[in-house]
């Protein structure tokens, strides 16, 4: 039976530079389930996507849902990524404060796997069911939502990026 999530919700894309082990890659696993499309060149990423970029000037907020047609994660080593190539995307967004639930970085702030970042984005944009569906593919995945339940709920209720940053300051203040 085909995975029902592949036709529902926001299309998910990952730019992957093959710098991590494909057997441990969260994006490769989602691709195997038909929930993610992986591209190997920056030029293959649509300029109209919401590009998850921790160096972005703006933080994601529910207000972004009005224009989002897809979400793209940069699934690569940040040490080698040339972020100057990313400045032409108007839809670059960073995530607010959240803590990792993955086994490697459990409890560490701002150290999310790509699937955690995608799920957080989906949740903030009002696509909580899609967020659960992608996280459910990992034995630790739904723990991410439980661990971050309070901030995710507050971020999802914010009007704009400024409100998200104000909420974030209450967590890291």
UniProtKB/TrEMBL annotation:
Q: Where is the RNase L inhibitor RLI-like possible metal-binding domain?
A: 18-39
Q: Main EC class of this protein?
A: transferase
Q: Which UniProt keywords apply?
A: Cytoplasm, Ribosome biogenesis, rRNA processing, S-adenosyl-L-methionine, Transferase
Its primary localisation, in coarse terms, equals cytoplasm
Domain of life, source organism: Archaea
What biological-process GO terms show up in the record? enzyme-directed rRNA pseudouridine synthesis
Residues that bind S-adenosyl-L-methionine, according to the entry?
26, 74, 95, 114
Q: Which InterPro entries match?
A: RNaseL-inhib-like_metal-bd_dom, Tsr3-like, Tsr3_C
Give the EC number(s) under which this enzyme is classified.
Answer: 2.5.1.157
Where is this gene product found? Answer: Cytoplasm
Where is it found, in Gene Ontology cellular component terms? cytoplasm
What reactions does this protein catalyze? Answer: an N(1)-methylpseudouridine in rRNA + S-adenosyl-L-methionine = N(1)-methyl-N(3)-[(3S)-3-amino-3-carboxypropyl]pseudouridine in rRNA + S-methyl-5'-thioadenosine + H(+)
- Domain 16S/18S rRNA aminocarboxypropyltransferase Tsr3 C-terminal span(s) in chain numbering: 50-172
Quote one Gene Ontology molecular function term.
Answer: S-adenosyl-L-methionine binding
Q: Which family does it belong to?
A: Belongs to the TDD superfamily. TSR3 family.
Check the record and name the PANTHER family matching this protein. Answer: 18S RRNA AMINOCARBOXYPROPYLTRANSFERASE, RIBOSOME BIOGENESIS PROTEIN TSR3 HOMOLOG
Purpose:
Aminocarboxypropyltransferase that catalyzes the aminocarboxypropyl transfer on pseudouridine corresponding to position 914 in M.jannaschii 16S rRNA. It constitutes the last step in biosynthesis of the hypermodified N1-methyl-N3-(3-amino-3-carboxypropyl) pseudouridine (m1acp3-Psi).
Kindly provide the name given to this protein in its UniProt entry: 16S rRNA aminocarboxypropyltransferase
Q: Which organism is it from?
A: Methanorbis furvi
